[in-house]
Specification:
The protein contains eleven helices and five strands, in the order H-H-H-H-H-H-E-E-E-H-E-H-H-E-H-H. With about 250 residues, it is of the alpha/beta class. A five-stranded mixed β-sheet has the order 3-2-1-4-5, with helices on both faces.
């Protein structure tokens, strides 16, 4: 079927041959209102450009996070409108394939009622451009899901972990409970001594059951997907700046 713009051109061509406009419309079966129709300007053009720009800047953000970024820019817009424009632009994030692992025994993970009750800690590893390892200590508040800290270093010992916790304690206090895996940095004498001195309970998950520390595992997945896999760190200082900017974001 011929579209309306092409049919308008046919009407103009017929009229140019001496036939009246009414007769030309009858010949091709087109109404006068369709001939005179002018499409309204796209009121979403500027918003669509904003969404596309944000999607290219934050390549692993979905429609929900793009909506939050739009609101942070001071634009008052309905989330359904953002989702529609996001889908029309075909900006959907492709899921990265993951290795399938056997499903183990699942245990419920109770969410604390208030901030600073339970923190979860773990390590995430990456490498800088020269091939040297980067070891990131990640700390998450289980109640608010806030990223309390991400500390990238070349190496982090148990004593280094306690110094980081002392630094956090000076600004926001210490939690009642810290949940970790069974890594030597978390089970060593330095950590046990620090926890006893600050009346903090250390809660270790069972070996081979990361689902018991699901909050930090979920956060680490986002950190790797949205930051570590998207960046190429030239130096440790470069990694520290990029990762801290991502954490604040």
């Amino acid at each position: 079927m011929v579209g309306a713009p092409a049919r308008r051109e046919v009407v103009r061509w017929i009229c140019g041959r001496g036939l009246t406009e009414r007769h030309a419309l009858q010949v091709i079966g087109m109404s006068a209102s369709s001939l005179r129709y002018h499409p309204a300007p796209d009121r979403n053009a500027e918003l669509r450009q904003t969404i596309v720009a944000l999607a290219h800047r934050y390549r692993r953000y979905g429609a929900g996070m793009i909506y939050l970024k739009v609101r942070q820019q001071g634009l008052t817009v309905n989330h359904k409108r953002i989702e529609r424009l996001y889908a029309e632009a075909q900006l959907q994030v492709r899921r990265r394939t993951r290795k399938k692992v056997p499903v183990g025994e699942r245990q419920p993970l109770v969410r604390p009622e208030a901030a600073n009750e339970v923190w979860s800690m773990d390590f995430v590893f990456d490498r800088s451009a020269e091939g040297r390892a980067i070891k990131c200590l990640t700390i998450v508040d289980d109640a608010t899901h806030e990223s309390v800290a991400i500390v990238p270093e070349r190496a982090i010992s148990g004593q280094h972990v306690t110094r980081i916790l002392d630094h956090l304690a000076a600004t926001r206090g210490v939690p009642q409970v810290i949940r970790t895996d069974n890594g030597k940095e978390f089970c060593g004498r330095a950590m046990l001594t620090w926890a006893h001195a600050h009346s903090v309970t250390l809660r270790l998950i069972e070996p081979g059951k990361p689902n018991q520390n699901a909050y930090i595992e979920s956060f680490n997945g986002r950190l790797r997907d949205e930051c570590l896999n998207e960046q190429w760190f030239l130096t440790l200082a470069h990694a520290q700046a990029i990762i801290e900017a991502w954490r604040r974001e």
